[in-house]
Amino acid sequence: MRVLDEGWRRPSLDEARRLRLPYHRLAWVREVALTCDGRPLVFARSVIPSRSLVGPNRALRTLGSRPLGELLFAGAGTRRDPLEVVALQSHHWLFHRVGELVGSDPPTLWARRRVHWLNRRPLLVAEVFLPELFD
Predict the structure, then answer these.
(1) What is the pTM for the complete model shown?
(2) What is the DSSP letter of 17?
(3) What does the domain layout of the chain look like in residue ranges?
(4) Are the C-beta atoms of 19 and 45 separated by less than 8 Å?
């Protein structure tokens, strides 16, 4: 896993809507590339509202190279909303965000996202499956 970007950022409009967050509000955004043998296979973007970074969830800001899944799938204190799946077309903002990892222009990238609830606080996790994953 390689951390690509992390910090207080403005979520996209669709992310803000999904989290019921005012569009002008900043959130903790973390972008990582999940790799195998140094090759990026999945781009993951997490959006965590500031209201979710309290109590035990404060650790979400200091994960470093640890995967977020360690906390989300540890069991106690977590639940998940239904999974959303989409075929990203080249005009979608997230398609462009992962462009540097892809290296070429595939016609479509498959992605999924869902809101996770960690200690009753929401965070949005999106994963884009890069073409190399299917090679």
Answers:
(1) 0.91
(2) H
(3) 2-134
(4) no
Taking only the tens of pLDDT, the chain with its 135 residues reads 899 999 999 999 999 999 999 989 999 999 999 999 988 899 999 999 999 999 989 988 888 888 888 777 776 678 899 999 999 988 888 988 887 777 767 778 899 999 999 999 999 999 999 988 877
Give the helix, strand, coil percentages of the chain, each rounded to 5: 25, 45, 30
As given in the structure block, the two tokens for residue 90 are 């080249």
Residue among 101, 84, 116 nearest 14 (CA):
84
Decide if domain 2-134 falls under CATH 3.40.50.970: no
- Look at residues 68, 48, 43 and name the one whose alpha carbon lies nearest to residue 121: 48
The residues facing 117 across adjacent strands are: 79, 122
- Calpha distance 60→87 (Å, rounded): 28
End-to-end CA gap in the chain:
19
Burial of 30 (0-12, 13-18, 19+ CB in 10 A): buried
Using DSSP's 3-state secondary structure scheme, residue 86 falls into strand
